[in-house]
Amino acid sequence: DAEITQSPRHKITETGRQVTLACHQTWNHNNMFWYRQDLGHGLRLIHYSYGVQDTNKGEVSDGYSVSRSNTEDLPLTLESAASSQTSVYFCASSDPRRAEAFFGQGTRLTVV
Amino acid sequence: AQTVTQSQPEMSVQEAETVTLSCTYDTSESDYYLFWYKQPPSRQMILVIRQEAYKQQNATENRFSVNFQKAAKSFSLKISDSQLGDAAMYFCAYRSNAGKSTFGDGTTLTVKP
Known about the structure:
The complex is a heterodimer of chains A (112) and B (113).
Chain A: E1 4-7, E2 10-13, E3 19-25, E4 31-37, E5 43-51, E6 54-57, E7 64-66, E8 76-78, E9 87-94, E10 101-103, E11 107-111
Parallel strand pairs in A: 2-11
Antiparallel strand pairs in A: 1-3, 3-8, 4-5, 4-9, 5-6, 7-8, 9-10, 9-11
Chain B: E1 3-5, E2 10-14, E3 19-21, E4 24-26, E5 32-39, E6 46-52, E7 60-61, E8 64-69, E9 74-79, E10 88-96, E11 101-103, E12 107-112
Parallel strand pairs in B: 2-12
Antiparallel strand pairs in B: 1-4, 3-9, 5-6, 5-10, 7-8, 8-9, 10-11, 10-12
């Protein structure tokens, strides 16, 4: 069965370190998204991609970057981790012909 | 930019009763999609129901139904015959035709036995 997986599921890192969160989907979807979820809030869009070599900033993109070199993967990089980036991160993918997005299991990132 | 508002941070319902969760949104687009997602403690985002804006008929999925009022930009979720397994955080989401989604802040639903 097709799926979308995130790794790692949990990570603790130190302030100032570079961190990369992986997202891999086997749906063959062109659209991929990264969100963060903070306590008391819904999901907020960090970056998104509509296809290979395409990346776009979302509403909370400062301090994050993504790259899309193939259809299956959209890694999220925190250039210099800050405590404000402690959050749960979700990756999602969707097919433009179908409305709904499919979500990964989430990654809980703690920056100490 | 689109916004989604869920005005009820918490709701509770007695098992087997009916509960309605509210959602309003703001957009200038005419073609879009609306969703309700369920997030249990496992963190997994589970699609509950979807509604295409061009459809006048309200979507229904078993015990879950929506009241979609396009002019009022309102999209409420009704859960009938509530079950203990319905307890979760529920998110309303707006998806533009371009593919980006905007989420509300969620409603925590408690089901009392």
